[in-house]
């Protein structure tokens, strides 16, 4: 005989989005039920952001010595113990895990059910022998790696983001299929950890980024030794003797065979919705996820969807932003809606690449020639010179009158620097607000101020200004 549990809100999925809703709802006094089938913390903690950034941090340490001589310091090439690098990754995850744990959430008053839930009606979910009835449901079941139909892949051993971080044998030659953020971040880290790395991208690597900024990243990664092939057409893959794998490409000069030790598939994501029986709940889906309106309500008004399953952006900060929208709608009945005008993203290659709002291309499509493009290079910033981090630029797009439409940054700490532009866009600040900021010297933040200042350069140094200064007799 099964058990029946009732509550105010029931969340399916204890990852970035689901945990934020659960913590918020229970702290606001709602009777909250959380269902998690896998590991608490979801992709971000266990197989995504946290392990990848920890690996990137280790790779940065390994790379640190390479330009030591430029600073007058002699250093030997480091020895990388890949297994111990993965110990570090595991240790970082373990340090964060208590924050996302069943114990913490039960302590907050949440009823946590372990198991995979599925809808059995418009207001009812089944988890094992337990039935949950709640006034509101939230689908936050995330995504998993999409596996492309490459001939031979099923018979060939390959890694994904779900298995790579438990591999303790350093790849001699890592072949990465897919040049999106996952492929490029992990490729870049492995180059620095001493692996030969080849990236096979069917179209364009980091294709969502402004081509001018993306090129800077590709140039740097290639200079460090990554073999990045764009427009790559994979004919087939196959296992070879001695734990090797083989990838056959169709190239301009005919077929080419690459031999590798490890294959990483990073070709996008599939949302976890097939096993939820969403039809039983009256929730419509598309090929890529759950249909939601601007309030993140599904076609069943009592059920919300957030994070990767809702899209359109698949980031941890999108999932937690969604959580805030759902809490306002579900608990306070406020008609809060999503607004992505100031939605940022960062890819943690070195240099990092970050953006918020419109890029040049989108702004030209929307406003034609009526935009201003401002640029400022890292090379002209004194702090960047002192640190020898002179690669990169800030690029800002404004309307003719100085409304900030978007910004993109490639360079050291781009992910930190982009945040000012997010605030400026969300608060409707004009470019003058950033140009008149007093930025402490010497900081990277001055690059933002100088990019904004470029808006005034043509006016400041115009003949009109020169005439005005003469008229006022300032130098007379
Ligand atoms: C390698 C990698 C690196 C990334 N790096 C970044 C980054 O640097 N910054 C960033 O912002 N984003 C990053 N992301 C993206 C980020 O991890 C996701 O966007 C985010 O985790 C999505 O949150 P979510 O709540 O939608 O899903 P998840 O966090 O994946 O949580 C979904 C949870 O639902 C559970 N579940 C699934 N089905 C059921 C069911 N039927 N019943 C109960 N539970 C279920 C799963 O077990 C999982 O725990 C990265 C992703 C990857 C793969
Ligand atoms: N720093 C971050 O915030 C971060 C880091 C990693 C991932 N993420 C999130 O995870 C999402 C998924 O990342 P992703 O890199 O897996 O997906 P993606 O969709 O961004 O990129 C996948 C790439 O694989 C290529 N591809 C697909 N099939 C191929 C094939 N058969 N052969 C060769 N290339 C092929 C595509 O053309 C595409 O460029 C991202 O969109 C992002 O939202 C974020």
UniProtKB/TrEMBL annotation:
Residues 344-451 form the Pyridine nucleotide-disulphide oxidoreductase dimerisation domain. Residues 8-322 form the FAD/NAD(P)-binding domain. This is Dihydrolipoamide dehydrogenase. Belongs to the class-I pyridine nucleotide-disulfide oxidoreductase family. It comes from the Bacteria. Keywords: Disulfide bond, FAD, Flavoprotein, NADP, Oxidoreductase, Redox-active center. InterPro entries: FAD/NAD-bd_sf (IPR036188), FAD/NAD-binding_dom (IPR023753), FAD/NAD-linked_Rdtase_dimer_sf (IPR016156), Pyr_nuc-diS_OxRdtase (IPR001100), Pyr_nucl-diS_OxRdtase_dimer (IPR004099), Pyr_OxRdtase_I_AS (IPR012999). Transmembrane segments: none annotated. Its cofactor is FAD. SUPFAM superfamilies: FAD/NAD(P)-binding domain, FAD/NAD-linked reductases, dimerisation (C-terminal) domain. It comes from Sneathiella chinensis.
